[in-house]
C-alpha cells in the first residue's frame, strides 16, 4: 500500500471512528445502567426504570435546544414540555455525553436535599462557577461549606436586617428616576436590579454603590459592575450547561468581567479592613465600645462583622460576592415578576394597594416583621408569584455514591388503574455514583397533580 493510500484511509477513518463513538458510547451507557438495575431486581425494594428520553447523537440535539430556548428566555417552559411528553414526574434524559435523572417529584426532591443529603454534592458547579464566585458558600461543599455556613449564619438575624430607613432612601431614589422619565416607557426590571444592588451593598458592605444615581466615586468599577456582573453570570450559566465540558466556555471577555467584579468587591473589602484597623488602633474604652456596638446594631454592616471572623482578603471577597449575588438577584427577580403580574391583573393590584394603605398608610414608620405578617394579602401575592416564578427554577446535584430515589421507577405494578402509579412510579430509582440529578421546582409548582389543571 502506497503512502498516499495510507493517508487517505487514515483521513477517512478518523471521522468514522468519531461518528461511531458518538453512537456507541451512549449505547454502552444506556445498557450499563439497565444492567445495573436488572442486577438489583432481587432486592427487597427492587428498583424500576424511569422513562428514558433519547437525544441522538450524544445528547447534542437536546443541548442545542437548551441553547436555543435559553436565548429566547423560554427555557423553563421547554423543560416543562419534556416532563409532559412522558406524563411522569421522574425521567431519565440523554444529555451531552451522559444520561441524567430529572425529577419534579417532591418526595425525590426531599430525598436529594434533606433525607439523603450526604449522598450528593454539587458536581461540576465549583469548577464552572469558580472564575467569578471563587470559594464561597454557593460553590464549596463538605467541610468548606460547613465552615462558610457557620461563619455566615450568625450575620443574618431578624434584628440585624431590619434597616428600613436605608431601603426607603433607595426606593425614593428609584421613584425619582421613574418620574424623570417624563412618561416614557421604563424597564422596571433593570431598575429593580439597580435598586437591589444599591440596598444590598449598603447593608452588606456599609456603603452603597449608588447605581441609581450614577455610581459611588469611592468604589472601583462602581459604574461598570452592574453590566460585568450580569454578563459574567450569564456566561456562568452557559458553562454550567456544558456539564463536564464547562472549560470549553472561557473567553478573554469573560475573564475581564470576572476581574471587574472582583476588583469592585476588593474595594469594599479594603474599606472594611481599614475600618477594623482604625477601631483597633483607637483603643476605645470599654464604655465607648459598648456605645459603638449599640450603634452598629442599629446600622449593621455584614462585611464588618465578617472581618471579625477572618482577615483573609480573598475569603472575604469570595464570601461577599456569593452573598451579594443572593441579595441582589433574588429580590430583583421577585419584584420584577410581582409587578409584571400586577400589570396583567389590575384587580389584584387594586386589592393589594388598598390593603397596604389600610395596614401601613403612606409611610414606612409602622413597618416591621411583625406588622408585615398581618398583611396577609401581600403574603398571598408574594407566595403565588414565587410559586409560578421561583427564584431558582431548577438545580442539580451529583451522586457521590450509589444510592436511590424513593420513587419514579416503573414496573409491572405501575400499569394499574391508579393514575398516580404511572405518574410517580411504584419503584425506587437506582442512582449510580457520578449521576447528575436535576430537579425543577418550576415544574413542580405548575404540576396539575398538585395545583389542578
Automatic annotation (TrEMBL):
<dbReference type="InterPro" id="IPR002974">
    <property type="entry name" value="Cyt_P450_E_CYP52_ascomycetes"/>
</dbReference>
<keyword id="KW-0349">Heme</keyword>
<keyword id="KW-0479">Metal-binding</keyword>
<feature type="transmembrane region" description="Helical">
    <location>
        <begin position="6"/>
        <end position="28"/>
    </location>
</feature>
<keyword id="KW-0503">Monooxygenase</keyword>
<dbReference type="GO" id="GO:0005506">
    <property type="term" value="F:iron ion binding"/>
</dbReference>
<keyword id="KW-0472">Membrane</keyword>
<dbReference type="GO" id="GO:0016020">
    <property type="term" value="C:membrane"/>
</dbReference>
<dbReference type="InterPro" id="IPR036396">
    <property type="entry name" value="Cyt_P450_sf"/>
</dbReference>
<keyword id="KW-0408">Iron</keyword>
<dbReference type="InterPro" id="IPR047146">
    <property type="entry name" value="Cyt_P450_E_CYP52_fungi"/>
</dbReference>
<dbReference type="Pfam" id="PF00067">
    <property type="entry name" value="p450"/>
</dbReference>
<dbReference type="GO" id="GO:0020037">
    <property type="term" value="F:heme binding"/>
</dbReference>
<keyword id="KW-0560">Oxidoreductase</keyword>
<dbReference type="InterPro" id="IPR001128">
    <property type="entry name" value="Cyt_P450"/>
</dbReference>
<dbReference type="InterPro" id="IPR002402">
    <property type="entry name" value="Cyt_P450_E_grp-II"/>
</dbReference>
<dbReference type="GO" id="GO:0016712">
    <property type="term" value="F:oxidoreductase activity, acting on paired donors, with incorporation or reduction of molecular oxygen, reduced flavin or flavoprotein as one donor, and incorporation of one atom of oxygen"/>
</dbReference>
<protein>
    <recommendedName>
        <fullName>Cytochrome P450</fullName>
    </recommendedName>
</protein>
<keyword id="KW-1133">Transmembrane helix</keyword>
<comment type="similarity">
    <text>Belongs to the cytochrome P450 family.</text>
</comment>
<keyword id="KW-0812">Transmembrane</keyword>
